[in-house]
From TrEMBL:
Record keywords: Hydrolase, Metal-binding, Zinc
The UniProt record lists the keyword Translocase: no
Highest taxon of the lineage: Eukaryota
Name of protein: Peptidase M20 domain-containing protein
Family, per entry: Belongs to the peptidase M20A family.
Cofactor(s) this protein cannot do without: Zn(2+)
Peptidase M20 dimerisation domain span: 212-315
GO function term, MF aspect, one: hydrolase activity
Pfam families according to UniProt: M20_dimer (PF07687)
The keyword Zinc appears for this protein: yes
Amino acid sequence: MSAIPPYRTKLLALHRDLVSIDSVTGRENEVGEFLVAHLEKNGYQTSRQVLPNRSDTPADRPRFNVLAWPKRKAASLEDVSAPRLLVTAHIDTVPPHIPYSIDSGEVTVDTKIHGRGSSDTKGAVAAQIVALDELLAEGRVRGEDVMLLYVVGEEEGGDGMRHFSRVLNARCNGGGGGAASDPAALLQRLPLATGFDAAIFGEPTEGKLARGHKGLIICTVKARGLAGHSGYPWLGKSANELLVRALQGLLDGDLGSSERFGRTTVNVGVMRGGVAGNVIPEAAEASLVLRVATGPQADGHEQVKQRMLEILRDVDAEAFTVEWGASFGAVPCDYDVEGNVNLLVRKS
């Protein structure tokens, strides 16, 4: 049996604390505040990048990205170099929150840990922070070379990373004001707009390098029928029936494929329709997420959208409307690592 690494207790404790916090998208304030306190206690400077609240965000619990970097001793801005490596993951989760639990008994490689975000991606957050702590302590990494970024909103549209990217590119103030000597103000004035040499994203990929990932289409398909009594079906037009037939067409239809990414897939996540069992439903809708197998990233999704509309029109020429959300085509990545250490991510 291999020796227990000295950092394991610290890693498991941080992971437990993170997973125990409910941070469903829109409610990331508590986990963000926890991270700020933890990082500052362990020798990091931090900055909050505040984002607009969502409709489901408590007004007194703002959402923010957490930026952190090892404390620096530079006397002036001229003495501070831009970080070369960005280490990042997201701190929001999909609903519902599932409390933390771990198998009883001695911790081994077979021990199972449960809880929302335990893998995606609070496991990565804990591992990144503890790994950087260890590397800094051993002198194997220079503090000025690394920046940590933990973003909100990844599970629904990616507004946290989008905000960081805008700040990065525009050299904007993303976390509040402050005097030139203030650590947060110092960070905001660092020459970050030149970019990083590399970035490590903490998505779960089996420990392998992702060499591409599918694109995405988020949409809501709406069907409009004609209400009526179920005893007189010829006088109405069931929106539910229309929607079911349309969804079956989308699930069975050819929405595009490629040798590299396989076929485009459809997930019917939410369905709504009708008011009572004996009433012909007038309206129905379904929320879909498609994983797009065709590129390029800029417009590979457009042919999928057109095929979707054709399928809907084949069911009924006038009954359907579609509200489109975030969309992009499949994304091949540049890589130069050979062997069985890379994979294609069939989600995005």
